[in-house]
Amino acid sequence: MGLGKTVQAIALLLDRSKLGPALVVAPTSVGDNWARELTRFAPSLRPVLLRETDREKKTLQGLGPRDILVASYDLARIDVDELVHVKWATLVLDEAQRVKNASTKTSQALAQLQAGWRMALTGTPIENHLGELWSIMSFLNPGL
């Protein structure tokens, strides 16, 4: 929607980058865009795209400060057993309305991830009922 959500998230990622690796979960269609925007606005960060064909455990084991792993919602759900072992400094959900239903496997998988800071980006936090906003807020504030 052109509201600058991505640039604001990149500023947060840049500020927190020294604390450890970050995870950005986004729709598959914008993963490459995240990598381009990170390179453009924060060249000191290292974007790593988690792709269907390149999901080796060594990729996750080698992550450190200034690394930003960009994963799709589907791969984050599928690979949650590996992602939970990484201590994420920052976790960003792009198009966070994907977790608007707390009972879905994707929402439940992402809720398992440990992160020092969580951020949800969405232009449509509520589409049908107030419970959708609760689900996003519950992700942001575990135990809410």
Task: Please characterize this protein's 3D structure.
The protein is of the alpha/beta class. Helices cover 39% and strands 20% of the residues. The protein has a five-stranded parallel β-sheet. Strand 2, helix 3 and strand 3 form a beta-alpha-beta unit. Helix 1 (5-16) packs across helix 2 (31-41). The radius of gyration is 14 Å and the shape is globular. The mean pLDDT is 91.
Q: Which parts are unreliable, with pLDDT below 50 for 5 consecutive residues or more?
A: none
Over all CA atoms, what is the radius of gyration?
Answer: 14 Å
Question: How are the strands of the biggest sheet laid out side by side?
Answer: 2-3-1-4-5
Roughly what is the average pLDDT, rounded to an integer? 91
What is the string of helix and strand elements?
HEHEHEHHEHEH
- Total strands: the figure is 5
DSSP helix count?
A: 7
* Most strands sheet: 5 strands, parallel
Give the terminus-to-terminus CA distance.
Answer: 29 Å
Categorize the overall geometry. globular
- SS content category: alpha/beta
Percentage of residues assigned to helices: 25-40%
Q: What percent of residues are in strands?
A: 15-25%
Fold blueprint:
Layout (H helix, E strand, L loop, with lengths): L4 H12 L5 E5 L4 H11 L4 E4 L7 H5 L5 E6 H6 L1 H4 L4 E7 L10 H7 L3 E7 L8 H11 L4
Parallel strand pairs: 1-3, 1-4, 2-3, 4-5
